[in-house]
Amino acid sequence: MKATETPQSAAIPPGFSKLRWLALLPLAALAAWTYQYFAATPPPAPPPARMAPAIPVAAATTTREDFPVYLNGLGTVTALHTVTVRPRVDGELIRVAYQEGQKVKQGELLAEIDPRPFNVQLQQAEGQLARDEALLQNAELDLQRYRTLLTQDSIAAQQVVTQESLVKQYQGTVETDRAQVANAKLQLTYARVTAPITGRVGLRLVDPGNIVQASDTGGLVVITQTEPIAVVFTLPEDELRPVMRRWHPGQEIPVTAYDRQGKNRLAEGVVYAVDNQVDPTTGTFKLKARFPNPDQALFSNQFVNIRMTLDTLAAVAVVPSAAIQHGVNGSFVYVVRDDRTVTVRPVATGPAEGNKTAVRQGLAPGERVVVDGTDKLREGTQVELVQRDGQRQPEPAEPKPEPPQRGQRP
């Protein structure tokens, strides 16, 4: 029996499958061309990674120089000698011969007390001396006559001995009178009050017209010696050993006095005395320095800052103090290499003075160290050298090649 055809197959027109494949051929060709194009074209390269910008920093060059070692202390100016001038006799002050604040020399007249009473005492003493000298002279003449009569056996020997005793008595009286005359002259001298030392007088304590007495405790004026003048200052007891190591051989230890702010230099001197004990309450010891003070820059009881030069480190590397950084492993600096990258360099620091620090080990002269802008630096960080005002630092000048000599090829 012959199979019957389905309505669907009967509805497909003949040649339809060939037409369908012919329509798909352009699509296949387009797909093949597209595949070949993208397969032959390499993928675009990824964008290059952005390099970290150079960090601007300020750098300084390490130098080699002699570095002084200072010790700083607080001191008070004291006069080498301070004298309160007091009257040595009683009387009326009739004259003051100095100006307040005047510089006086030893032996110069300062004041005068009424000398009339002392002149009277001197005249009385001289009159008593003249009377007793006359009595002595008469007794000596009698003694000579008595001795002559004794040789003639005209008087008793006892009378001669008595006369000799009388002569000795008058001699003692004359000596006493002479001492009284000298004392009267001395009291008259004391009526003129003179300067016992060379120095500067202070303010007048007693005005002319007042009655002064030798028992007065206030005195007439105070004189302080200002040339030279001394300063007593203290240092921590930890510095005692290096100070005594310098002091015992007899070497001079120079010191400089500065004002209260420590900015203005007042005078220069040397240490000439060290105390023999340490103050247990403050842990300090005292030293005394002497200053010539010709310009009167130092005054008694003035507060000063003392800088003592203890030693000098010869030919040591010196860097700005701002370059020294501190970490858990100690002190270090950032050294700028030739490729403008930084490296961390441990250093052994020495004493510091002002804005400079001595480096005992770890740096060589001529190396550049970062002094500003260290916050973002790490090992190998690229840097750009700028000045502290923001301007770029000039590159170090390269040495110019020497011109070829005659007979040499360039």
From TrEMBL:
Residues covered by the Multidrug resistance protein MdtA-like barrel-sandwich hybrid domain: 82-224
Coiled-coil ranges (or none): 122-149
Stretches with biased composition (Basic and acidic residues): 369-403
Major place of residence: membrane
Domain Multidrug resistance protein MdtA-like alpha-helical hairpin: residue ranges: 121-191
One Pfam family per UniProt: BSH_RND
Region annotation Disordered: where it falls in the sequence: 364-410
UniProt entry tagged with the keyword Membrane: yes
MF terms (GO), sorted A to Z: efflux transmembrane transporter activity
Keywords from the UniProt entry: Cell inner membrane, Cell membrane, Coiled coil, Membrane, Transmembrane, Transmembrane helix
All copies of domain Multidrug resistance protein MdtA-like beta-barrel, residue ranges: 228-312
Locations listed in the record: Cell inner membrane
Name this polypeptide is given: Membrane fusion protein, multidrug efflux system
Native source species: Methylomagnum ishizawai
